Amino acid sequence: MSDGERRDMGSKLSFGRGRPGRTAVTLPDCDVPLAEMPSPSLLRDDLPLPEMSQPEIVRYFTNLACLNYSVDTGFYPLGSCSMKYNPKLHEDLARLSGFAQVHPLQPIETVQGALALMHELQGFLAEITGMHAVSLAPAAGAHGELTSILTVRAYLEHRGESRHKVLVPDSAHGTNLATVSTAGFQCLPIASDARGNTDLAALAEALDEDVAALMLTLPNTLGLFDQNIVQIAQMVHETGAQLYCDGANLNALLGQVKIGDLGFDVVQMNLHKTFSTPHGGGGPGAGPVAVKAHLAPFLPSPFVGQAANGAYVFEEPEHSIGKVGAFHGNFGIMVRAYAYIRSLGAPGLREVSENAVLNANYLLACLREAYDLPYERRCLHEVVFSGSRQRAKGVHTSDVAKRLIDYGFHPPTVYFPLIVDEALMIEPTETESKETLDAFCEAMLVIAREAEEEPELLRSAPHDAPLRRLDEAAAARHPVLRWQREDQA
């Protein structure tokens, strides 16, 4: 079957493929008394389910699956997402019956193995980040952000301090702004300087005794390490505020530096980015929070401790902010992260960051002549280009992204961070080979030439995809959430 035939097959809904009388199974005659059907008022007659044979059903869904793009089929250069390939062995471990079939309400003596894993993982993450204590409860990165700031708020209130402001750099993830608002603080933006660092003059002007915290992403969303971090930590602490690290980009720092040693008081980690969990259908996520000793009493419950007799128990920190989820966090993600850390060890984790940084700088070197580089510095795990040169030819970053689909690549993150004009944010991760990066760079270079010579080719891309250029604004504002027959539409 050709790619074109497969696309045509996938584009035709199952509702239009069935034929009356076809069936996928043959059922034996009923050998029990027939029951009466429910009231007709409870039955739907507006959904004509397709009647298909078993081979037709299997082929239909298999061909639909072939249209999907996944990390098993191609390269995901999504900046700030760390979409790296994850070992299949860790998936098997998470599915072991002793892990997959436990229930959070089981008697605690029957889940000692699971608690032992959680307890050791807390210790691993504390060691990796240079922090004192870790809560595994938050369910994802943004949830970890919120938990971090709520912990800071509880700490300050316990000290009798009423602070109302949180400072957020203009290069921050958008979830930082939502976290500040949800936690009940006023958000004040801090500008970046010409080097992509936090502007120290702007920070000094904003810092006062009403500031509760500075939320800093390190490396920042420009893919750069803030060269002023030690001075920033000193400035923040001199006013009595706390320094929070958005650890979404921790993949760049593993084994290189400890967040706590840089002066941070709290950090949220994304296990599903840094420590082996497939994104999307392989989720969900997990966003543990690690803190210095003075914040530990305010962490959410439960915390896995160890009794004098060696048994593992759930503990509640003395001044805990309480539960932030239904139970104990996303346990399956913890299993994967635990396996990842144990299998790599300290040398392997360090190699992860080294290769991630090497790959990103390789892309920087290969593409810097074709796309504008807003900050002339070595990057860490990701590189941010600008498509402003292409825009001068009437080609926007979104056009570059759509054209990449024709070359078999998932587009990178676009239009973020917001402080970069026509931003192209590319993160290769450590798991991609030089051959893959070379193929991606060649596609990007060809697209840059096309923008100069055939801009209309990009403005109408993608040309070789199941769906062409979509009206994304209309899709977001007027989503179609319910299927209708053509004669009812």
Give an overview in words:
It is a single chain. By secondary structure, the protein is of the alpha/beta class. The chain has three domains: 3-29 and 46-66, no CATH class; 89-343, 3-Layer(aba) Sandwich (Aspartate Aminotransferase, domain 2); 351-475, Aspartate Aminotransferase, domain 1, CATH 3.90.1150.10. 37% of the residues lie in helices and 10% in strands. The chain is built from 16 helices and twelve strands. The chain has helices at residues 3-11, 54-66, 88-94, 97-100, 112-129, 141-158, 174-182, 200-206, 229-238, 271-274, 331-367, 388-391, 397-406, 434-453, 455-459, 472-477, and strands at 133-135, 165-169, 186-190, 211-217, 242-247, 266-269, 289-291, 303-306, 312-315, 383-386, 413-414, 423-426. The strands form three sheets. A seven-stranded mixed sheet has the order 1-7-6-5-4-2-3, with helices on both faces. A three-stranded antiparallel sheet has the order 10-12-11, covered by helices on one side. A two-stranded antiparallel sheet has the order 8-9. Helix 9 links the parallel strand 4 and strand 5 (242-247). Helix 6 packs across helix 7 and helix 11 (331-367) packs across helix 14 (434-453). The protein is globular, with a radius of gyration of 26 Å.
Q: How do the helices and strands line up, and which of them pair or pack?
A:
Blueprint: H1 3-11, H2 54-66, H3 88-94, H4 97-100, H5 112-129, E1 133-135, H6 141-158, E2 165-169, H7 174-182, E3 186-190, H8 200-206, E4 211-217, H9 229-238, E5 242-247, E6 266-269, H10 271-274, E7 289-291, E8 303-306, E9 312-315, H11 331-367, E10 383-386, H12 388-391, H13 397-406, E11 413-414, E12 423-426, H14 434-453, H15 455-459, H16 472-477
Parallel strand pairs: 2-3, 2-4, 4-5, 5-6
Antiparallel strand pairs: 1-7, 6-7, 8-9, 10-12, 11-12
Helix pairs in contact: 1-2, 3-11, 5-11, 6-7, 11-14
